[in-house]
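agent> step 3/5: call structure_predict on target 'Peptidoglycan binding domain-containing protein' (Streptomyces chitinivorans).
agent> reason: downstream docking stage needs a structural representation; sequence fetched in step 2, passing through unchanged.
tool.input:
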Amino acid sequence: MPAADDDGRPVPSADDRAARTPAPAPAKRGRSKLVLLGVAAFGALGIAYGAGLLLDHADVPNGTTVLGVDIGGTGKAEAMNKLDAVLGERARMPLVLEVEGEQKTLKPSVAGLSLDTENTVRGASGRDYNPVSVIGSLLGGARQAEPVFKVDEEKLTAALKDLTESSGGGPRDGMVKFAGGKAVGVPGKPHKQVDAGKGADMLEDAYRTQVATGRSEAVELPVALEQPSVDQKEIDRAIREFGEPAMSGLVTVRAGDRSIPFSPTGSLPKFLSMKPVNGKLVDTYDLKVLEELYGSTFDGVLITRGNGSRTPVTPQDVAGALREALRETDPAKRVGVIELDPR
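tool.output (status=ok):
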């Protein structure tokens, strides 16, 4: 008979109690293994990261490329030489342009475009502490650095102006020339001109592509019809204020005891003209021709300059004296004096 308590209820045996007690849950061995694997992987990455830093002592980090050229693990000078060797020829290739159906070529140096290898390498140099880059360099991974280009805006604009096609013969802009003792106005003509703003952007893009790919494809530059910047009103003003006085008679240039006259029917028209500068006509002198005309007149005459040095008379000195004298109509005032000691 099973044992009973004081109330007569049966007392469970030891076997019955053991059967009713739930068994302990099995240990989660799988999760422990994952944790251990994660710790091990993290440790391995740390070791790899440290090894990458220790092994990469060069100016340019391992795995660094510029437009496909591997310059990683080198000093700055060697990296520049590598870029010049591979990209230098591409950077000097003439650009192929198309203006109004006519194909032309333009040297990058003339357009003020160049690959700046020095600043490119400078930007790619220095320690890279990014774990992805450092570990990737050990595994042969690449780190791409951006090339740096130089753009001389002034040269680029001038080059685009040189590419301009005129719509006809003769000058594109108005001017004043001197002939037969008279100032003669020459009206400008409408002309086709490359759009400098859009054209500059297109040339820059084309140059970058050419350096990157080594291929030179024709760039069609936009052209628009431009009106002359110097109109008839400006031509009339220039003749009235300068042209007519300039041709009113002989003009003389004097330096010390030396002097030489210039005639409106002889020598003046050979070197004197008026050309546009920012929409205004200004007197312009062909210094080479002027020097040939006065020859040895001022030989031995020295001018004391602002720095105290004494130097011979130059064509610029003669032109400067002429500029003031040509504006006068009184014969007594048509003498341009070169001061020998302007201090």
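agent> step 4/5: record observation. The first strand starts at residue 64 and ends at 66.
agent> proceeding.
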